[in-house]
Amino acid sequence: MLRRIRSNRDPRDTLYSELRREFGTYFLAGEEAVKRLSIAYPKFLFSCMAVLIILSFLLSFTLFRHPSEKKVHQPVTRGVQEGFDQITSIATSIRQSLELRRMVDSLSAKKQLTPTDSVLLDSTLDRLSRLKQSLK
């Protein structure tokens, strides 16, 4: 299925050397034309180069500017802040539920409850059930 391709090409021949061999006369003629042009009109070429650099500078700060990059950073920090707020509220709820469970355990450990203990146990259990609902 896969066969090795055998080539009689000289390994020293590269793409550059082959292009140079084929189009070398054109490259040399172009090189000579550019040299003659740069010698004949150096101020014109320098001014063209300076104008192109200034044009590139102006375009990079006006036309090709992306102002939407600043807007991307604001929602990220707002989302992080909301996440931290949510974490702290959950931690507070868990801490309250642990305190309420300790109170329920201490009240249920008594052999006999007074009427105030009964009311306190009932309100504590209600608050504990509301906290569980808010955590879900």
Write up what this structure looks like:
Helix 3 (69-108) packs antiparallel against helix 4 (115-135). The protein has four helices and no strands. It is an all-alpha fold. Helices cover 79% and strands 0% of the residues.
Provide the fold topology.
Blueprint: H1 15-40, H2 42-61, H3 69-108, H4 115-135
Helix and strand sequence? HHHH
Strand content: under 5%
Helical stretch count?
4
Helix content: over 70%
Largest sheet: none
Question: Could you give the distance between the termini?
Answer: 63 Å
Q: Which ranges are low-confidence, i.e. pLDDT below 50, for 5 or more consecutive residues?
A: none
**Using DSSP, what is the number of strands?**
0
Classify the secondary structure makeup into a structural class: mainly alpha
As a whole number of angstroms, the C-alpha radius of gyration is 41 Å
What is the approximate shape? elongated
* Integer average pLDDT: 86
Any descriptors?
136 residues, mainly alpha
Summarize the structure.
The chain is mainly α and 136 residues long.
